[in-house]
Amino acid sequence: MKKYIVIGNPIEHSLSPKLHNFWFKKNNIDAVYEKKKVETNEIKDLILDLKKKKISGINVTVPFKKDVINFLDQLSLESKETQSVNTIFLKNDKVIGHNTDIDGFQIAIENPMIDLKIKSALILGAGGVVSSIIFALNKMKVPKIILSNRTKEKAEDMKNLFNNINIVEWGNIPDADMIINATSVGLKKKDELNLDFSKFKKKFFYDVIYNPKITNFLKLGKELGNKIENGEMMFIFQAQAAFKIWHGIKPQVTNELINFLRQ
Ligand code: ATR
């Protein structure tokens, strides 16, 4: 039986196994998907297992999306430009890294983006997922992308990857049509960003976090009269794109699936 894994640390809360195993059943694929908590020094051997076909595909999550690059034979353009890999596969005996977070984010926000005519986006945070978000916003031709991170050096590192972005000081919130929380603040229910969002009305608040479903950031955004969306669909669509790469099938995103994941 073919085996797929998601590696990360921590990994207990990953819903990827639940999602991929659901799609295996629906598409009559004889395979299993498991999660594996790893340390950096274990990554090399796992990639070797992929090369030996003991494993058929690997998803990568926090904090290894950049670290895995060292062990791959080839990168897709997307993973090269974002320096981030979340999906690994074997093609012509070469281990290839790709980034499906970009498509995941883009598909998840496409409709609200068009409706709200988004011309500027403010990203809070500079962690692992931010380069994918910037790549997607550039692809969607959002003219102005602003980045703010508590630790300014990390924001500047991001500007080295994407020189079209504007960096602003943490706490200095400029106007934007869309504001994205890409920090880890909100993972705990009581977490607060303590930033002044009062000028935002009829804009779009997006949180990469989907558990809890409504972070304080989204709660406040809604109270102020903004459209809100959490990271659930981004998570599902990045998995859909990975599934398509591994199995050549675009699995369906249905209400049944969404409800199953929420259980
Ligand atoms: P990842 O593993 O996704 O890369 P990370 O690198 O730990 O996550 O990034 C988490 C993000 O949340 C960072 O942008 C971090 O800001 P710093 O670079 O200053 O650490 C941000 N973050 C975490 N806790 C925060 C807090 N209390 N206030 C503001 N930003 C915070």
- Structural class estimated from helices and strands: alpha/beta
Quick one: CATH superfamily of the largest domain? NAD(P)-binding Rossmann-like Domain
The coarse silhouette is globular
Strand order within the widest beta sheet = 2-1-3-5-6-4
Helix content: 25-40%
Bound molecules: 2'-monophosphoadenosine-5'-diphosphate
Average pLDDT confidence is 97
CATH architecture of the largest domain: 3-Layer(aba) Sandwich
Low-confidence stretches: none
Per DSSP, the total helix count is: 9
Characterize the biggest β-sheet: 6 strands, mixed
How far is the first residue's CA from the last residue's CA? 27 Å
CATH-defined topology of the largest domain: Rossmann fold
Detailed description of the structure:
The relative contact order is 0.13. This protein starts with a strand and ends with a helix. With 263 residues, the protein is α/β, with parallel strands linked by helices. The mean pLDDT is 97. The strands form two sheets. A six-stranded mixed beta sheet has the order 2-1-3-5-6-4. Strands 9-8-7-10-11-12 form a six-stranded parallel beta sheet, sandwiched between helices. It is globular and about 55 Å long. It folds into two domains: 2-98 and 233-262, Leucine Dehydrogenase, chain A, domain 1 (Rossmann fold, 3-Layer(aba) Sandwich), CATH 3.40.50.10860; 103-230, 3-Layer(aba) Sandwich (Rossmann fold), CATH 3.40.50.720. The chain has helices spanning 16-26, 43-51, 77-82, 101-116, 130-139, 152-161, 216-223, 232-247, 255-262; strands spanning 2-8, 31-37, 57-60, 74-75, 87-91, 94-98, 120-124, 144-148, 166-167, 178-181, 204-207, 227-229. Bound molecules: 2'-monophosphoadenosine-5'-diphosphate (ATR).
